[in-house]
Design goal:
Elements: H1 3-8, H2 22-43, H3 51-73, H4 83-93, H5 101-108, H6 119-132, H7 134-144, H8 149-161, E1 163-166, E2 169-174, E3 177-182, H9 193-208, E4 214-219, E5 221-222, E6 230-231, H10 239-243, H11 249-266, E7 268-269, E8 281-282, E9 286-290, E10 293-295, H12 297-302, E11 307-310, E12 315-317, H13 320-323, H14 330-338, H15 340-349, E13 352-354, E14 366-367, H16 373-384, H17 389-403, H18 406-424, H19 427-436
Parallel strand pairs: 3-4, 4-9, 9-11, 10-12, 11-14
Antiparallel strand pairs: 1-2, 2-3, 5-6, 7-8, 12-13
Helix pairs in contact: 2-3, 3-6, 6-7, 6-18, 7-18, 8-9, 9-11, 11-18, 14-15
């Protein structure tokens, strides 16, 4: 910290050492962070310069005690909690260490990402250190692979009718195929908190229904001057919502990865799972149907699919350099599809991969004329389980264990949680959005 600033703020307490038990250190931490908060509030505009030092002190605490905090909140890893439940339960149990739901809601109400203090960084670093702990991290991953309560509540209706609408997103069963149609009509089928929560619930319903053997993910129809009567697979993160502070770090950034994408890739975890070595999950193969484009998060979804078909002219890309953060799990999975050099071109240089080109066919398996898409979906879903459902799932598991074992994924997500939290509040992100997206000209 700048010495002149320290002189102006003599009341700033010295950071304590956290080398005792969780009970002892949490009391010390509570007192220290309460004092630090008062000093920051009294400092006015100078207070922003103090926050990094306080944040470092919190991470020092998490580095030693995140695992013990997790065990306390989950009752020694016996309560399966989603990440959002974890961070807010921990905030109540360990005051001042993590922001409360009320504090996060108050920041969201500012409707400006750049006006937030960065409280979600504390959530990101805490979750990172939980994931870095092998036992707690694996328990959290398996907890996120359990069906959402909303899906369990809707399941009886889905079993009875074969169709459920969750906002603009629908899930429908026809024979042994479950189709999730992603929709966010007001924003060109982009991703935001509500749209992603709906999609995960829909994926849960496909996985829960034992009459379904293959899942299909497709974009919904739009009525838009630029895309009249067209389907768009996925336009990526809603950048307008991001700029105006309406994208949640926990419910969107983290639960999207550990929930939605990992459920498509791995399926549902058994509540009494015994061994991660046996890939003991309830899973199904998935087909993605890309019409128009798969941008950002849409492209990331293709990395967890078993087969991808696309219409002529469709493209896939990761405009990460225009946004300023990590494109989800693409850094882990895209190199397996395209090779590391092309993955770097995609992440750092905004390279587009077009369906039908040699490079695009590293991501896409088949190009289908738009008028023939329904027939191609039927043909592909039949072939995906032609050897029998048990054989398909068994081969899927065997391929995955060689490509992305549990521990590799856990370690990646630990790094992702920490680094993405810092990216989320980097000034460059705001500058990138203002330059590339011009959100001030767009409606919320």
């Amino acid at each position: 910290m700048d010495s002149a600033l320290q002189t102006r703020l003599p009341g700033l307490p010295k950071c304590p050492r956290f080398d005792a038990t969780l009970t002892q250190d949490s009391k010390t931490a509570q007192d220290y962070f309460a004092q630090a908060t008062l000093v920051i509030e009294r400092a006015g505009n100078d207070g922003a310069a103090l926050r990094p030092s306080v944040r470092e002190a919190k991470e020092s605490f998490f580095r030693r005690h995140a695992g013990a905090m997790y065990e306390a909140v989950t009752e020694n890893c016996t309560r399966p909690l989603r990440i959002s439940e974890l961070v807010y339960d921990a905030a109540e149990r360990f005051p001042t260490l993590l922001p409360s739901r009320k504090q996060i809601d108050a920041e969201r109400a500012l409707k400006k990402q750049f006006a937030k203090e960065g409280l979600e960084i504390d959530q990101g670093t805490f979750v990172a250190h939980v994931l870095a702990d092998e036992r707690c991290g694996m328990h959290l991953i398996h907890s996120m692979l359990r069906p959402k309560r909303q899906a369990e509540e809707l399941f009886a209706e889905f079993r009875r009718t074969g169709r459920v609408a969750i906002g603009d997103t629908t899930v429908e069963r026809k024979g042994n195929v479950g189709t999730v149609t992603h929709g966010n009509r007001a924003f060109l089928n982009s991703e935001d908190d509500g749209a992603m929560a709906a999609m995960e619930t829909a994926v849960d319903l496909v996985l829960l229904d034992d009459r379904i053997q293959v899942g299909v993910l497709r974009g919904g129809l739009l009525q838009h001057p630029k895309y009249p009567g067209k389907r768009i697979f996925n336009a990526g993160i809603n950048l307008t919502h991001l700029y105006y502070g309406q994208i949640s770090f926990i419910e969107f950034i983290m639960e999207r990865e550990l929930g939605l994408l990992n459920k498509i890739y791995r399926g549902h975890s058994n509540p009494d799972h015994q061994s991660d070595q046996l890939e003991d999950v309830v899973e199904k193969p998935w087909l993605a149907v890309v019409e128009s484009f798969a941008i950002g998060g849409g492209c990331q979804l293709l990395g967890v699919m078993d087969r991808v078909i696309a219409e002529p002219g469709a493209y896939f890309n990761l405009p990460a350099s225009k946004e300023g953060f990590i494109p989800g799990s693409a850094n882990l999975r895209l190199p397996r599809l395209t090779g590391i050099q092309r993955a770097r071109h995609g992440i750092f240089f905004e390279k587009k991969f077009y369906a039908g080109t040699p490079e695009g066919m590293l991501i896409c398996d088949e190009v289908v004329e738009t008028a023939d898409m329904d027939g191609a979906i039927e043909r592909n879903t039949k072939q995906m389980i032609a050897a029998g459902f048990t054989s398909t799932v068994s081969n899927r598991k065997a391929l995955r264990v060689g490509q992305e074992p549990w521990d590799v994924y856990r370690r990646y997500m630990a790094v992702y949680s920490r680094q993405q939290a810092f990216c989320f509040y980097d000034q460059a992100l705001i500058s990138n959005l203002e330059h590339s997206w011009q959100p001030q000209k767009r409606r919320m």
